[in-house]
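FORM 12-B: Structure-to-Sequence Request
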């Protein structure tokens, strides 16, 4: 899940919507996320979009996938299909750094998987 109009690359791990990367807009201009400076960082967990919650009472009780998709959908769809213009105002609530450990664990799993694939390739087990 990602939104280049805001400059946020998001991932969902263990039901939590986590900021994975902050990027520039496709045309190279600074994105709204970049213009926020250090307020938004990789590892922050989004808990609400425009007042719609992504948790059930606590950040440790994430919403179901249907709810997550429903709440995030406006972030990745233009408000006007013809002009491809996105909403100019979005209110996001974060828990700072809550997803950092999950991102680190995911990177470690991906690294091990790549190392295992390389090892299997060297042994001639995978083409």
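FORM 12-B RESPONSE
SEQUENCE OUT:
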């Amino acid at each position: 899940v990602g939104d280049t109009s805001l400059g946020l690359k998001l991932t969902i791990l263990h039901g939590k919507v986590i900021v994975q990367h902050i990027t520039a807009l496709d045309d190279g201009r600074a994105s709204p996320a970049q213009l926020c400076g250090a307020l938004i960082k990789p590892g922050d967990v989004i808990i609400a979009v425009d007042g719609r919650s992504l948790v059930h009472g606590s950040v440790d009780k994430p919403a179901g996938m249907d709810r997550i998709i429903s709440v995030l959908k406006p972030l990745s769809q233009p408000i006007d299909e013809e002009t491809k213009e996105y909403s100019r105002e979005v209110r996001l609530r974060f828990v700072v750094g809550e997803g950092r450990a999950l991102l680190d664990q995911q990177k470690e799993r991906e690294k091990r998987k790549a190392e295992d694939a390389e090892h299997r390739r060297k042994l001639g087990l995978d083409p």
